[in-house]
Amino acid sequence: MITMARISQYLQTMSLVNSVAVVGLSFLFLLIFLKRIVLSGRKMGSTSLPTVPEVPGLPIIGNLLQLKEKKPHKTFTKWAEIYGPVYSIRTGASTVIVINSPETAKEAMVTRFSSISTRKLSNALKILTFDKCMVATSDYNEFHKMAKRYLLTNTLGSNAQRRHRNHRETMIENTTSQLHALVKEDPLRPINFRKIFESELFGLAMKQALGKNVQSIYVEELGTTLSRKEIHKVLVIDMMEGAIDVDWRDFFPYLKWIPNKSFEMSIQQKHFRRMALMNALIKEQMKRIDSGEEVNCYLDYLLSEAKTLTKEQIAMLLWETIIETADTTLVTTEWAMYQLAKDSTRQDRLYHEMEKVCGFNKVKEENFSQIRYLDAVFHETLRKHSPAPLVPLRYVHEDTQIGGYYIPAGSEIALNIYGCNMDKNHWENPEEWNPERFLDEKYDPLDLHKTMAFGAGKRACAGSLQAMLLACAAIGRLVQEFEWRLKDGEEEKVDTVGLTSQKLHPLFVILKPRN
Ligand code: HEM
What we know:
Elements: H1 2-44, H2 72-83, E1 86-91, E2 94-99, H3 102-111, E3 118-119, H4 123-128, H5 142-156, H6 158-163, H7 165-185, E4 191-192, H8 193-210, E5 216-219, E6 224-227, H9 228-243, H10 261-290, H11 298-305, H12 311-342, H13 344-358, H14 372-384, E7 394-395, E8 400-402, E9 405-407, E10 412-415, H15 417-421, H16 464-481, E11 482-486, E12 496-497, E13 502-503, E14 508-513
Helix pairs in contact: 5-11, 7-8, 7-16, 8-12, 9-10, 10-12, 12-14, 12-16
The chain binds protoporphyrin IX containing FE.
């Protein structure tokens, strides 16, 4: 009986095992079948294409250790020589497709834009951009379109730039007269060019945004009065530093439940101080507006036109124009003056070409299109010293293809503008600063996109016109007024720092006024 019972139990177990096995096997076959269908479906679409080459890395952390030094654009460019213009890396849990040639970058930014129009922000940038509440970091949505329209209409479009011309002229006059005063004091003393230009540029940024070049302000939420220098630090310097702060949880989102207190406190504090200061600056200007005094500036425009925006959104959009004006144009102008001070032959050439067009008159914006060499100096500086070397990461929200490779949804895209502008297949001797390359007939003097410096497509730089007008006016006038020479030992100081390619060491020059 016992044996029979055991046999029967055995048979029952076996039949259960069999049933489970049959169900299991059927499920497995179903999975294989479904996978085949999915794959064959993909084959018809983008996945008949090869996957991108991978840069070998380590388990779990991927390529993070290889990116320790803070200039990933340079590492990416070196890898492009080994793996080609499109390759993938792993930063912890994320796969990032890095694009390094002008052709593939244009394909990504223009042709494939609809599949990669959203942003992937680091934890620091999520806080500092008030969760994408800026034109430059928002996704391509209704907010973006509305905010960009406001920005172009009041500040950055060509009509708006015409209306702001007086600010540019004042800025250039102030810069040159301060330089003249310093040279008069001591003709041989090296001058810190950045100190003067940075302050003047920041003044212009505040006038365009708020209608006033504020010298100091009491900030109630901070319980203190901030000087002009402190205002610049809170709105520009701290923000640029915070933007590249790394939270290790960016790379391992599955560990986001582990607190990273020191990181959070530092970023939240920067954000709090920036918002407190913006609120105080806005409040002060509201008093002006309430007293009936209107000024052509972004604040007045947003308050009268953008009724649906919240107080925080207005503060963020105003701050956006301040930081964007104050940083990249400084980077470009400082590098251009470094190159010209280093190269007296090219400096003389620029001077004489301006003389041919303007005689002894001060160079004006109307003259720019006739002075091809000025345009060439500007574009060559943008190419060699790409102020925005990496575009903030984009997110691939549907399968797509770039450069003949299959790019799966869920990847992130890093557009290496520096790599595009240094691509040996596109530029002869890319390491050389050679404005003459842009004198070639094939370049249209009015084209602001001779290099990839301003990006491309729907998200191309909205401030390219302003950047060109400011940088060319400054470069032109500075060379008309002075002979530039680098301070001894300055030539080797070519290292960069930060999110943009700012010179690590401020530019020190010896100036000789021209008669
Ligand atoms: C030499 C100076 C500058 C360079 C090299 C530069 C570079 C860039 C680049 C590469 C992008 C594209 C980002 C992307 O594709 O995601 C961009 C976007 C943008 N830039 Fe600039 N920029 C400069 C100056 C300025 C200035 C002066 C402003 C404004 C005051 C400005 C405002 C913007 C805005 C609003 C966007 C976002 C456009 C959009 O998303 O539709 N930029 N810039």
